[in-house]
Amino acid sequence: MAEWKRFLKIKLPVALLCTGAGGLAGLVLLTLALVDEQSINTWANASIAMKLARLAAPNRPPAVIISGGSGALYGLDSPYLETLTGRQVTNVSTQWQLTFYTAEKTVELVRPGDIFMMPLEYSMYGYAAGDKAPFEACYRISHDRSSLKDLRAWGDAFVTCPSYMLLYGMFLKVLRVSLIYEREIDPLATLNEHGDHIRNLPELGRGPNRRHAAHRISAPEGTLRLPRLERLARAIKQRGGILAISFPAVLEPPEGKPSLPTEDVDRLKKWAADHDTIVVSTPETHIFPAECFFDQAHLHRGCTRENTRRYAEALKPLLTATETKAGLGGSRM
Question: Whole-angstrom Cα distance, residue 236 to residue 103?
Answer without folding.
Answer: 10
